[in-house]
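Quick illustration, no need to memorize.
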Amino acid sequence: MTPADVDFIVVGTTTPDLIFPNTGTLLQQRLDIHGCPAFSLETACSGFIYALSIADKYVRVRRIEVRARGRRRVPVAFRGLDRSRDGRALGDGAGAVILTPADEPGIIGTHLHSDGKYQDLLYFPYGVSNGIRHAAQQLDCDGLKMQGNEVFKVAVRTLSRTRGRDAREERDRAQRNRLACPHQANLRIIQSAADKLGLPMEKVVVTVQDHGNTSAASIPLALDTAVRDGRIHRDQLLLLETFGGGFTWGSALIRY
């Protein structure tokens, strides 16, 4: 492909480089692409699935070629994390997929959800309207806030419901050929959600031990790993699912 082949850019990111211009246009400039629509969205760790769903709709309705990119970018020196509870930290990464129109379904369907009542369980407390912090050094004690145990409970409950619905849509098709590629939040959430769905762990792509939680980038990074090692192959049924602060969550069922 060349830059001229790209007709649309949508970026999911948890850490935009600037308030504006949006990260989609910054990526557009770096890729030397000009004139096509480009934007970014902020749904935390759910950014890739949200971006994928939006791109899918544009392809279906407008029959245009779409570039969808899930992105997580945090400087190594970033210290805006609340480590007082469990010593957690986030990883840094980026990944991309290209969508094109096809006669046979690749993306069979997507499901997006959110519920703001959970906002106090996982959030970053600063923004433009309440005193944004410009220097990462100032965020030693005032960065990411998370009630880990409660987040775990809600994540497992919502993801198992979402994944179960997607699985039922294809229950009679290629049961043995199904592979789950979840957001790599942590191993306990991945294992618990897979158990509730009845998926053995050998049918689940796990890369959190290598990359950590890379937020919106974790699914495309995991997809890349599984394609390279041969676990993902043609005509395979893929179940992608994610959960992010806000809360936002979603899934996509794909025939690779």
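The first strand starts at residue 9 and ends at 13.
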